[in-house]
Amino acid sequence: MTHSPETPVVDALADAVGGPVPTTERPFPTERPAGCPFDPPAAFAEARAEHPISRLRYPDGHLGWVVTGLEAARGVLGDIRFSSQPPGKRSPVIGPEDAPDPSVLPKGMFVNTDPPEHTRYRRLLSKHFTVRRVQEMRPRVQELTDGLLDAMERDGGPVDLVEAFAKPLPTLVTSDLLALPEAERPQFREHVDVLFSLSSTGDEMARALTGVNAMLNELIAAARANRGPDLLGRLVAETELTDEELFGVSLMLLIAGLETTTNMLALGTYALLRHPDQLAALRADWSLIDGAVEELLRYLSVVQVGPIRVAAEDFTFEGQPIRKGEVVTVSLPAANRDPLGFADADTLDIRRAATRHVAFGSGPHQCMGHHLGRLELAVGYESLLRRFPGLELAVPVEEIGNREMMVTYGVHALPVKW
Fold first, then answer.
1. Number of structural domains in the chain
2. What is the mean pLDDT of residues 362-373?
3. 2: in domain
4. Which of 224, 241, 286, 390 would you label with 111, given CA atoms 20 to 30 Å apart?
5. CA distance 408 to 20
6. Is 92 contained in some domain?
């Protein structure tokens, strides 16, 4: 066992709480267990068995923490003593040395702010993502979904479900939300892929950001000139947000609306195809679709790096001495497989009541678009599986490549036929 420089503090705390406090240091794992593409890296379960929050050695040598327990994850994400602001933040995985500095992100990217600034932005935007507003979008989401499935049916199989369906659907929905011109949507998607890849170089990321900047600035200028019914048009009409703030808000919404939903659509379909009993149960009773979405979100937890927080002060949390400036990374996949939170947690069960999962985060920073994400998944899964009752993999499972070196987990491609 490797001991940290804080060992005397840890020993004193152990005496106070009446037991040993774990001090094992681990690097942040990304490799999935062989033959188990839906399971989190095994090291997370080992860490969680020791303690729900344990020491993590960051790539630059910083000694921080990783959270693997469900209640601990909820605690960190709901506690303002764990700051979301960029100063001191560091990634638990190695990225390009010349990657853009997160401390110079534009205003409006309120995912990297704390109250009261975070509260102000969220209040301005939250009314556009209520259950009622999102349900009003259902006919359009269904229309876009049907169009993609029509194209798949016309072309015939096999097709790569990622390129034919999982990528285009959230791209279309989110682009509609912000009135992104149709001609620019494929290029924007490519830029997002670069920004979320852990293997992108700093130059590649900079070029992608430049391209995204140009697209969004054009959208903001258009919204200023003609206040349409899209989200940017409404924000221009209803708020006093500056162009920089509108840019940050737009960038956050576009990126968040694409990556997670794309990977959930593809990986969730893959998981159902690999669990034929669960797929059969869903086909036999479509009223299970909403519960199936929740269980797939829990079981897969595609955001595999972060959320990341920085301790704003010294305090004790879950029996651990947290020091100001220490970085804390929450593993959502590990938390959502916590056996103390979910019985038989490593089993996919679409009849499970899985609503306490943290796939969309928790607390004040919970993903604001979670209602929209759920709608896209429910419409997407049900429409796909109804349209193609004979849907199956078109290649052996050994040929399905996983996105281990990406911030958001999934499959690179999913060849299917019907």
1. 1
2. 90
3. no
4. 224
5. 35
6. yes
In a domain, 154, yes or no: yes
CATH of the domain at 148: 1.10.630.10
pLDDT on residue 399: 93
CA 127 – CA 129 distance, rounded (Å): 5
pLDDT at 192 (0 to 100): 76
Domain that holds residue 181: 7-417
Nearest to 100 by CA among 203, 240, 183: 203
Identify whether 1 is part of a domain: no
Classify burial at 231, counting beta carbons within 10 Å of its beta carbon; exposed 0-12, middle 13-18, buried 19 or more. buried
